[in-house]
Amino acid sequence: MSAIVIANAKVRTMDPGAPRGEALAVRDGRVLAVGREADVSAVAGPGAEVIDAGGRTVLPGFVDPHNHLLSTAESLVSVDARYPAVGSAADLVSVIAAEAERTPPGQWIRAFGMDDAKFPGGRPSRRDLDEATTEHPVIVYHVSGHHAVVNSAALAWRGITADVPDPVGGAFLRDEGGRLTGMVLDSAMQLLLPTAVDIGCHGPNFHTDLPAEQLLSWLAAAGERYLAAGLTTVCDPQVSRRELSVYRAAHAAGTLPVRTVCMPLSHMLDDLAALGLAGPFGDDMLRLGAMKFYCDGTLLGGTALFSEPYGEGGRFTGSTYHRPERLTDLVRRAAEAGWQVGVHTQGDLAMAYTLDAIKAAVAVSGDDARPRIEHCGHPTPGQVRDFAALGVIPVNQPNFLHDSGRDFVRRLGERRAHRLQPMREEIDAGLRPVLSSDSFVSSLRPMETVANAVRRRTREGDPIGADQAVTLDEALRAHTADAAYALRMEDRIGSLTPGKLADVVVLDHDLDRLAVDELARVDAWLTMLGGRVVHRS
User: Fold this and answer.
1) What is the DSSP string of 426-469?
2) Which of 103, 163, 333, 358 lies at a C-alpha separation of 20 to 30 Å from 111?
3) pLDDT for 222-262, tens place per residue?
């Protein structure tokens, strides 16, 4: 097969041995050469196809190590309840009512992205949603994915009344009179929608029971968004039987849009251990990675577990999905079975519980455990030192700081809010923190994530933890080479090193010519997956 040469380019390889180049050649799905244009053309040989990059930046395909691919696909075809388009309960009622007008009675209406911390009147209730429709069951997912609000029809459809007990790891919110408000937290979500799997108290259940053909169609459509943003590999951090079945079907049909690493949720630990199965397992397109656990809840929704209460009047105390000793037992057993582990953790008290669990895992994992802490919201300086001793990989989402930074300052106070996701401190401690989106929770576009790690500013333009900002080079590395390391795939993706898979993105700008505030608008001009052009602007 003839080679393809990307010429007239500004190549950033993420390979410290040869960090920059003028051109790149690929052949047979792999990187062939990087360097001076004349040298690369000579290696490519006669007959090579030449793509003129026009002086644009060329990078390894972005790797997103925490991205709910299938759920993002669902969110893209559901009602959009994100801020600022939906900034109040009245706005939410309006968009749900509009959807009800075009939806047959009795059919579920689902919305994603509600950020009630920004609503002037606070959390909406089922009474608000009842104003929109009483003929459709309605569920509106909180922007965190951990909570939801439903209308009275949804509660009635599921037979949920005021005497429903709170499940382990979750709660039904009630008003002063003990009546259900319609807001459900964390594991209580499982009792609302018809779900494809029962995950117990192992996390929020958004694994909705939907036809496989529908999910496959939505996945293919979402793939266009991912490739247009320059994403070539994602890790879905909460995979159940539902997700794995859809990803396998897409892989078999040749329609899986990006390389996909699956983190099976911890409710499957015993079944997978009985089979003798542990990650990494699979091929370069679809594989099992680490196992996913939950410690506490959500920073955005008030269930992150801190050592001091937070929120207006200290109304948030946080919660956990498992007792600390139970979490330690689960994580240790997974490590004994051969799994890399990843633990969702936000508050500093939850971080202490997670560190106990990770210490137990590392003790039985050998020398290359690579434990992940998902979100890694508020580690103390002492906990960061513990990370360094254990080889922890913090999995950060700086988009949260942009989207909700002012809310964090208001709820956590200056002292705690400005220490959220302390990437500068983590890098200086010798760690390899990675960048991710947590899509569907925030934008899937990697250059938005990179921009927010570099500028550390809120949506309103206020600094948030400015001393924890990273450089552009550090941010790009955290979203490529270091992200590949977190997935145990650094031997094949993450850098433009000859011999590695030719996952390449040509950005639509020259990053050397852009100001920091311009980075967030950058997308892909061209994307290659395994040496095949899969997107052209």
Assistant:
1) HHHTT---EE---TTSS---HHHHHHHHHH-B-TTS-BSSGGG-
2) 163
3) 999 999 999 999 999 999 999 999 999 999 999 999 999 99
Task: Name residues whose C-beta falls within 8 Å of residue 525's C-beta, 6 or more positions apart in sequence.
Answer: 53, 56, 506, 507, 508, 536, 537
Question: Token digits for 464?
Answer: 């948030």
- The set of residues, in sequence order, having a beta carbon less than 8 Å from that of 165 and lying 6+ positions away, is none
Give tens-digit pLDDT for 517-532.
999 999 999 999 999 9
In our burial notation (b when 16+ CB lie closer than 10 A, e otherwise), range 313-334 reads eeebbbbbbbebeebbebbbbb
Residue 394: CB atoms within 10 A of its CB come to 26
Cβ contacts of 63 within 8 Å, gap of 6 or more: 231, 232, 233, 234, 479, 480, 483, 484, 487, 489, 493, 494
Residue 440: cis peptide before it, omega within 30 degrees of 0? yes
Q: In what order do the strands lie in the sheet with 10-12?
A: 20-21, 10-12, 57-60, 504-507, 524-529, 532-536
Q: Minimal CA–CA distance to 346: which of 299, 393, 387?
A: 299
Dihedral sign (CA 105, 133, 213, 266) = negative
Amino acid in the structure at residue 480: T
pTM of the prediction?
0.96
Burial of 356 (0-12, 13-18, 19+ CB in 10 A): middle
How far apart CA 127 and CA 111 sit, in angstroms, is 17
Q: Which two tokens stand for residue 250?
A: 């897409």
Tokens 């390979």 identify what position? 15
Encoded tokens for 219 = 């996945």
